[in-house]
Design brief:
Layout: H1 3-13, E1 25-42, E2 47-51, E3 57-61, E4 77-90, E5 97-101, H2 103-108, E6 114-127, E7 133-137, E8 143-147, E9 162-177
Antiparallel strand pairs: 1-2, 1-4, 2-3, 4-9, 5-6, 6-7, 6-9, 7-8
Length: about 180
């Protein structure tokens, strides 16, 4: 996953810190649902690769409690429900850096449900007056502008803020045949 795509998802989905606060983490736990075709199925690791109707691929590990996994076949169209955790922490002294995969550290803390955890730091460059777009700079100097679905997500964020972003994918919690 690229820095720009990680940061795009995070700025579209996350609440951010209020001004005047000491740097604290804000967490947004959300459940995502995807209806897609199973492109690849790995039974031993319980991992499926899905392709949506607009050709977006998503790989998901399926929790052992999901018994429907045993009946799945490549080509099945399914609706998968999984969880994502997004954490944003304003870090004034943090150095922007590439995306770091921190999955191993999450497992060491005892969270065996984590499939993938990614972390990066970006610098906010600007927020449009309507709060519809945010521009940020990545560690390698790329300047990226992204739309923001909910302008309340940008409250308290100012140009120059450095923000550490952690995105965690957890296992699929349900799989059902898609309704046609």
């Amino acid at each position: 996953m690229t820095v720009s795509s990680l940061a795009c998802v995070l700025f579209v989905c996350l609440p951010l810190a209020w001004p005047g606060q000491a740097p604290t983490a804000n967490e947004s736990l959300r459940e995502s649902t995807m209806t897609a075709t199973i492109e690849r199925l790995m039974r031993l690791s319980r991992v499926i690769t899905l392709r949506s109707s607009d050709n977006v691929y998503q790989t998901v590990q399926v929790d052992k409690a999901v018994t429907a996994f045993d009946g799945l076949q490549v080509g099945d169209v399914v609706t998968v429900r999984y969880t994502e955790s997004l954490i944003v922490e304003v870090r004034p002294n943090a150095k922007p850096g590439p995306i770091a995969n921190t999955t191993t550290e999450a497992h060491a803390r005892g969270d065996e449900h984590v499939v993938e955890q990614l972390k990066t730091v970006v610098t906010i460059e600007s927020i449009d007056s309507q709060g519809q777009f945010v521009t940020y700079r990545t560690y390698d100097g790329r300047r990226i502008m992204r739309p923001v679905r909910d302008k309340a997500l940008l409250e308290g964020i100012r140009p120059g803020d450095r923000v550490e972003i952690t995105r965690t994918y957890a296992r699929a919690v349900s799989i059902e045949p898609a309704r046609r």
